[in-house]
């Protein structure tokens, strides 16, 4: 079996993967090659996968790791595919802000596997940013400070209304718990990657609301610095979607931004996420003050 070929998208972030047909089960050596490439490049782009069905999308993702439900709050595609999260731009499925998926839960996903289902004629690109590079861009004194901080991540602004008004307070199941409330959780500001040991700046404008232990003014100022370095174009890669595209990213070391420049044109994406572990920082694991479920 031919090994996949990789073409870097930037010197440090992203690679296009060729020589892989995701519509068929992959042999173990190809799965291992994809997992190794994900650790190295953080974002992997697969083109020409027009024959991929929802079932094969899910099954391919399952070969990379244990799957989560579609989302802590939003139900899955259908009864046969509860793991597929539908991002329909016509039904609130837009995310024009830098964010890392589901960091408002104690154990955010390891990674995400996103497939283009329906695309606008133009626009609708997605950008990813390298949170390891963002951490290294900070000055050494600021990195030392960040290493010892924790921050609150809160999903209520995006999902609380959906949970209570559309679902009547009965969300999905995440980590074996029925989600009936979304209380903020704490994560380290700097995350140590559990496989590579490298450090990333693990905050994002989408869900990170406050640095624990600081005054509101101090927290806002420090988050502004972190968010600014996350968004530097030197750390990013931008993908123009085409039919048949599928992208995988490492949720432990990246954030992404779905560009909303296509007006009321239709854009539908399917996402599957891989089960992750509780983030820990340079000093080890931290206690969580929030609860994800009631």
UniProtKB/TrEMBL annotation:
InterPro entries: AtsK-like, TauD-like_sf, TauD/TfdA-like. GO terms for cellular component: cytoplasm. This is Taurine dioxygenase. Keywords: Dioxygenase, Iron, Metal-binding, Oxidoreductase. GO terms for molecular function: 2-oxoglutarate-dependent dioxygenase activity; metal ion binding. It holds the Pfam family TauD. The keyword Metal-binding applies. Residues 8-273 form the TauD/TfdA-like domain. Belongs to the TfdA dioxygenase family.
């Amino acid at each position: 079996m031919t090994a996949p070929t990789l073409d870097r998208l930037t010197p440090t972030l992203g690679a296009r993967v060729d020589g892989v047909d995701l519509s068929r089960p992959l042999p173990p050596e190809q799965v291992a090659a994809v997992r190794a490439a994900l650790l190295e490049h953080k974002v992997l782009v697969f083109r020409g996968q027009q024959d991929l069905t929802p079932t094969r999308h899910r099954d391919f993702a399952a070969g990379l790791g244990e799957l989560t439900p579609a989302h802590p709050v939003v139900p899955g595609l259908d009864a046969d595919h509860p793991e597929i999260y539908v991002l329909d731009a016509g039904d609130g499925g837009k995310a024009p802000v830098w964010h890392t998926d589901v960091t408002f839960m104690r154990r955010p996903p390891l990674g995400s596997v996103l497939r283009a289902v329906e695309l606008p004629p133009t626009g609708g690109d997605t950008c990813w940013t390298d949170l390891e590079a963002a951490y290294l861009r900070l000055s050494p004194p600021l990195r030392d400070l960040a290493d010892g901080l924790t921050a609150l991540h809160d999903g209520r602004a995006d999902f609380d209304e959906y949970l209570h008004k559309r679902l009547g307070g009965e969300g999905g199941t995440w980590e074996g718990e029925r989600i009936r409330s979304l209380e903020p959780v704490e994560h380290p500001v700097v995350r140590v990657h559990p496989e590579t040991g490298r450090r990333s700046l693990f905050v994002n404008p989408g869900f990170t609301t406050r640095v624990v232990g600081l005054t509101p003014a101090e927290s806002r100022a420090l988050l502004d610095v972190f968010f600014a370095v996350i968004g530097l174009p030197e750390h990013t890669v931008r993908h123009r979607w085409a039919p048949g595209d599928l992208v995988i990213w490492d949720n432990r070391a990246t954030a992404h931004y779905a560009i909303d420049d296509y007006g009321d044109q239709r854009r539908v994406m399917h996402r599957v996420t891989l089960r992750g572990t509780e983030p820990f920082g340079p000093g080890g694991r931290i206690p969580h003050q929030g609860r994800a479920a009631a």
